[in-house]
Amino acid sequence: MELSPKFMVSYKRGLNTVENGRQGYWLSTDSWDLHRRAEKDRLRHNEKVKEVIKQNLGEIIGQQDIITAEDGKIIKIPIRGLELPHIRFDPHGKKGVGQGPGGSQPGDVIGRSGQQGQGAGKQAGTEPGIDFYEAEFTIEELVQMVFEDLHLPNLREKGTKDILADQIRFDTIARRGPQSNIDKKRTLINAWKRNAIEGKPGWEIRDEDKRFKSWEIVPEKQRNAVVIAMRDVSGSMGEFEAYIARSFYYWMTRFLRTKYTATEIVFITCHTEAREVDEHAFFAAGDSGGTRLSAAYKLALEIIEKRYNPREWNIYPFMFSDGYNWGDQEVVEYMRKLVEYSNLIGYGEIANDLWGSSGGLAPLGQAITEAFQDDPRVVVVKITSKEDVWPALKRFFSKHPEVAAAEW
Prior knowledge:
408 residues; Rossmann fold; 12 strands; 21% strand
C-alpha cells in the first residue's frame, strides 16, 4: 500500500476504531504542513539564531562571565531580532498599487523613506531602533556550537596501545521506551505485518507492535594523543596577556575533553625556569621573573622522550607568550627537534603594545616564522584582542590538509 505524499500517518486515537475491545489508530488525511508548519518555523528560527551566534563566536567566547560559568548554567546572549518574512503596511500612509516589472530578488531594496535618524545620546529621533532580545543557552549548548568544526589536526593511527573511551550510540531498538523515542516506521511495518498475518490488512496498532529507539554505551577505540600546553608566566605578561592565554587554554581543554576524551594534557609554566604543573596551578599561576622559553621546550622534549614515544603517540605542543624572550635561537633549535616528533606545533603571540599596533610579530615570533616558513607543521598566530581567541582556536584545530599531504 502506497500513501500519497500529501497524506500523513498520525498517531491519533480514533473514536470509531475499537475492534475486539481494543482501541486502534486511524490514518489522518490532514495536510502534513498544517501539523508541522509551526514546528518547522520554530526549527528554522532556531537555526537562524545559531547562525547569528556562530558569526559572533569571537566576541562571545572571550567574555569572562562565560569562561567562569559552571556547567548547566543558563547564559543570555543578546542578538538582533529575527523576524519571519511578512508583508508590512507603509507607516507613512503613501498610496500606490502592488505592481512592478518583476524579476525582484529577496533582499532587493524597493524603496526608501526619508533619512530620519534613530537618534543618538540625548538627541531625539523619529525612526524605530533595532530590536534586540536575549537568547538563552546552557554552557553545554554553547560548547557544542564552538566545538562543532574543531578537530585534532593530522591525527594518525599510531602505536599498538588503544585507549578506550565510552561513546553513546543511539542505534538499538527496544519494545519499551518513552513515547518520544518511538520508531514510527518500524512500528507501522510491524503493525501491517501482524494485521496481514491475521487476515485483515490494515494499520491497527497494538502495544506489541511498537518499537522504540534506544541507546547503549559502548567502548570506542581512540587514537593515542597528547597535548603539551605551555604558558609564559614571566613578568612581562600583563593582565591582558595572561587573560588571553588562560582563555585560549580554557576552551582548548574543554574541546579536548568533549570530543577527544582520552587525550592526555601536559601543563607547563615557564619564566626563566620551566616546570610541569597540574591544571589548577597552570591556570592560577601569577606572572613574575624573566623569560627564557627555551626551558619550556627543553622540558617538553624530555617529557616526550620519557613518557610519549612518538611512534605510539600523536603529539601537539602549544606555547602562548608575549614574544619577549632571551635566547630566541635556542627556542628555534628546540622546536626543530620537536617538529620531528609532533603532528603540529602551535605558537601564539599575544600583542598588546608596540608589536600589536605595528602589525608585525615580536622578535621571537619573527625568528620562528623565518625558521619554519616552509614547514606547515608549525603554525603561528597573533592575538591582539579577546575576539582573536576564536580564530586562533580554528587556526590550530583545523584539519590542515597541507600537513597531511607533506612527506614526513
